[in-house]
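Case study B.
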Amino acid sequence: MNRKFAAAGGLAIVATLSLAACSGGTSETADPGASAAPVTLTLSGWSLETTPEFQTLADGFEKETGNKVELVEYDPAEYNTLLTADLGAGAAPDIITQKEVKYVSTLVAGGQLLDVSDIEIPDSVSGAKSYEVDGTQYGTPYRQDSWVLFYNKDLFDAAGVDYPDGSWTWDDYDEAAKALTTADHYGTYEHRWQSTTQGFASAQEDGDIFSGDFEYFADSYERRLAREAEGDQIDFATSSANSPTYQGEFGKQHAAMLPMGSWYVATLISQQKSGEADTFNWGFAPIPQVDDSTTSEPVTFGDPTGFGINAAIDPAKTAAAKAFLEYAMSDDAASTLAGIGITPANTSDVVSDAFFSVEGVPTDDLSKFAWSTHDTKPENPTSDETAAVQTILGTMHTEILMKSKSVEQAIADAEAAFKAL
Amino acid sequence: MTSATADRIGIPDTSGTDHTPRRRSKLVLRNTLLGWSFILPNFIGFAIITLIPVVTLFYVALTDFNIFGKGEFIGLENFPKLFADPLFQRSVVNTFYYAVMHVPLTIVVSLGLALLLNTKLRGIAFFRTAAFFPYITSIVAIALVWNLLFSPDYGPINEFLRFIGIQNPPGWLTSQEWAMPSIVIISTWRDMGYYMILFLAGLQTVPRELYEAARVDGTNAWQRFWNVTLPGIRPTMFLVTVLLTIASFKIFDLIIVLSPGGTAAPNQATVVLSQFIYQKGFIESKFGYASAAAVVLFAICLGATVIQFYINKKRSA
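Model:
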């Protein structure tokens, strides 16, 4: 009885293991035959239901060239880890979406991306430099987000506060937050990511995260701590414990203002349509500046999102893959993307018109100005050490906002950790 | 085979015939092969999935590999850099802090539970199962529920503390001083069922006659516990301590889901060695460096276990 059980158990385990070894990875149906035959490419994406851009590009590409693009979904929070695991196993898709610029150098150092220097990048496309490592182009951008200030016009009216007019400084922002706070909602909501505070500081104070000198963050953090102390925005500790989403906080009108990346436009429109978010009037303004010297071209930060080609791609498909990268930067694709509320990397006039003719996008002059006119500095400059430095700064961010260290102490410790790198 | 013959197996035969050495070695060989064939299936799995990666770990710790295996051999360079790294030092301190709090607390709680549930009441199986539930609960559910319970402003725990008069209840998972103790509490709650089962098994091996003899001698409950129960379950206690210590040094999942500030960056109050390894290896792609830290963790676990074996050996002598 025992032996039979053991034997059966052993067989079952062997069977399961071999099944597990056979499954997994993506199924590619590359068409054999002449190069003119349609090719099927695989593309990595995330949150496919709420992020329609991948399907949009895939459909447009198929219409134009007849080549199919299949999407492979990854969890957005663990995208890079999962993708790395697939790359290590040799089971990653043909076209790899670069969700975060800070991983580009890791992938390049690991020899995972194909050299795409022969792809022509149009002049109206910005952000290509983020995919350049040692002079070689390893990816192309299709989207370039910048951070702007979303604001709830209805809540502003109710509080009798003037809308942002494009000339706000951080002092104006602090005052508005105070005036807008009521018992029902906060004046503003700043998300837990380190970029919400550090991105602006680095861009507007001309800070260089690779210099090892982090003093320039002090002012932004002092302001944020002051706003939290006054109760104008939710404090970091409570936010960490309850994990509110920024879409929920602004969409359900728990806060009147929200500094966020321009990708939120598409999400807010679709959530207002589906009822997930309340229906209210909103707009977006340039992010508050340090002073009014930069009003004509507000300084903000943002990173592009782009595509790279898996170095292990089947050589027969390389031409089609490069064609896809080119397509994603074209006016056609950019207009289609703009049509669903995405901010493409290609911001020619055609594209701009397409963006503002989408139903639900605020068409006031200020929103148009905020969208098209900005000096966007990269949040993650491409380098070997980006991931390590951002980790140190992330720890500093948590320490300051959890109030476990004073601002000066946290900055000093971060500088020491940077030296130890 | 008679028992007389069985007794002679393995013992040198001094009867002086020529056949004995060959017969003895053949028997030994047969026994050895028999033994190996029994453990081979398990050993193959262990070798492929555990032993070979661990051996490879020692090699990778001497390189600067990134996550894709590209890099070169750099000898012992990783280690001085590691020991000078402030985040590493912090991780080691936090790991020991966690272990020192978690191990005694869990032993006391699970032993207490086992003593309580070591009766023949009707329905006792239900209580034993209920105590085991936390161990099999999803870690995400644990994080969500305990975050709510520990919420400094709205959570029931702080409400209760304020009710009984404590004006400034601690910030629990949101405060730097109380984050690690909070995680220890949650971890004990989770593990108590598992170690309770082990203790229950151990308690049931203590002969009943010893308790009766102790009662006859006029001992009270505490004396019975100290003089009969504890020595009686020493093997189980040893097992539980070793398992618990190693598990405490390797703690990872609870830290990741419960650390203040989330998983974005390691938090100074709660970063432990395995989180440091994960951060360096998978987020910053420094596989060689992370492997060096993993070697240190291995050494710590090994050292602690050797010490415990030594103590146990002394006690059982």
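Chain A is about 45% helix and 15% strand. The remaining cases will be described in the next quarterly update.
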